[in-house]
Amino acid sequence: MNVIHLKYPHQLAQEIEKEAYSLAIGFFDGVHKGHQAVIEVAKQKAEQLNSKSAVMTFDPHPSIVLGRRNEKVFYITPLSQKIDTFKKLNIDTVFVVNFTSDFAKLTPEEFIKYFIVDLNVQHVTAGFDFSFGAYGKGNMELMDQLSNGKYGVTVIEKQQDEVEKISSTRIRKALQDGDMEQARNLLGRAFEVPGIVVHGDKRGRTMGFPTANVQAMEGCYIPATGVYAVKISVQNKWYDGVCNVGYKPTFNNPDEKQLSIEVHILNFNKNIYGEEVVVGWYKRIRSERKFNGIEALIEQIELDKQQAIAYFEQLR
Fold this sequence. Notes:
Elements: E1 2-6, E2 21-25, H1 33-49, E3 52-59, H2 62-66, H3 79-88, E4 93-98, H4 101-104, H5 108-117, E5 121-127, H6 140-145, E6 152-156, H7 168-177, H8 180-187, E7 191-198, H9 203-206, E8 212-216, E9 226-234, E10 237-246, E11 260-265, E12 276-286, H10 294-315
Parallel strand pairs: 1-4, 2-3, 2-5, 3-4, 5-6
Antiparallel strand pairs: 7-8, 7-12, 8-11, 9-10, 9-12, 10-11
């Protein structure tokens, strides 16, 4: 897969061939089921037109540049994760457009010239609510009106589940609540956090439950504190596990807040310090709480482990 970073005004490198593209366009945070519907149609159009399939996304989030949010934006999929997901969807080319103040000032007509026509896009696919150009004045109806026969346009209608529209907003709320089953249903896959295994306090080992202490990749969102049934990818193989996310109140001073992600990997006995891993989150078993002594904690961890085992058994 080819990844091309663009900034307005852009100049495509000479070594990049002037391919024809069927383009799926959007911010695509999470690359959830709704986004996948857009991308799938773009791939189908690419086959029909004998062109390359492509995705155009933006970085950073437009609200950061436009100042529309006071709270910090968290990404369901940071850019590197998003690109990895596009690769898994067998996209040929990803255009990452640097969202800057100058880019935000482009009129809809200018956006189409520089980022559709000049890139030799033969077909554009986007969701019904995609907007572009200064103040979001461009919509998919205008995209079609301004095509002048140079490219085709497909608009994907609202994708819903049994409740409401599938959206990144709903997924963020599920992650904040620790509702990983809801997140997985909306994403079409488990929510994943990549990281690296680092040294911890090794207390789990002394209690009979050795854990991998995972330092998450910068920019990843960590779900609500608690104990979860998870899967963890180690050296490209997935293992079942039980994970504690939190501040270890049984042992730590409550005033010293140091969030940790500790995964007890089932049926696993290897030293994996320094290994890059991916944690897939499946179900929240319980909230984090303080125990009166180590014995009570060990008893609860065993119950958590059995719950995780039973959960994955019924998934198979």
